[in-house]
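Subject: Interface between my chains keeps coming out wrong

I've been trying for a while to get a sensible model of this assembly. When I model each chain on its own everything looks fine, but I need the whole thing in one frame so I can look at the contacts. Pasting all components below, labels as-is. Any help appreciated, I'm running out of ideas.
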Amino acid sequence: MKSLTVKMLFTSVLFTLPSLAHAEINHAEVKVPSQDIVEARALIKAFGGDLKHALTTAMKSDGPIKALTVCNVEAAPIAQKNSALSSWKIARTAIKVRNENNAPDAWEATVLRQFEARKTAGEDIKTMEYAEVIQEGEQLTYRYMKPIATAGLCLTCHGTQVDEAVTTKVRALYPNDQATGFTLGDIRGAFTLKKQLNKE
Ligand code: HEC
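Reply #2:
Try treating it as a single job with all components included. I did that and got this:
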């Protein structure tokens, strides 16, 4: 996979100012976000909202064991529903995954490590994001990621002291689960989005 050299958040900047193509763009200085990033942020709001709604409803009405089944059965269709409404592919990934289908590709793994480094350097994960245009052959793909923070609610199933019944159910559904041991405010994972730019 070949990445364009620009660490960029704003495709329009790259394409209208080719002379900047090899420069690092400091996103703090860019005032007007590109349409792509506006779309990506909006989709994450919708997708994240749907997921949280499904999770909190199940937790409240049926408790964590039933909620586990809901996550297991509904996470992928919710992602697909949100992807189908647009030209984007939307998913979640993490360094330590519960579902192996969510494992990061090489680009995502690099960005996840970058997020950890930025957090360690003191950056607030609430406003953290990263976007880049990737070139593979002729294909240009806009890729965007945003970290997902570990909230109190998440600890029931991803925390350091997970209830035995929950652990048993998690192991049954995900024998290779790695997604426990998180504490409040940790980066649990990230939303990951991509869109083909020069699709016919
Ligand atoms: C009821 C248990 C439960 C709770 C509570 C829960 N999760 Fe999960 N989480 C799961 C399950 C099950 C999966 C695997 C879903 C799948 O099969 O795609 C998962 C997967 C994920 C993933 C995708 C990456 C991976 O590990 O496969 C992220 C990111 C994630 N959870 C974040 C969170 C966050 C953030 C919270 C709190 C807002 C949270 N979860 C609360 C059970 C839970």
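Reply #3:
Confirming on my end. The chain has one domain: 2-196.
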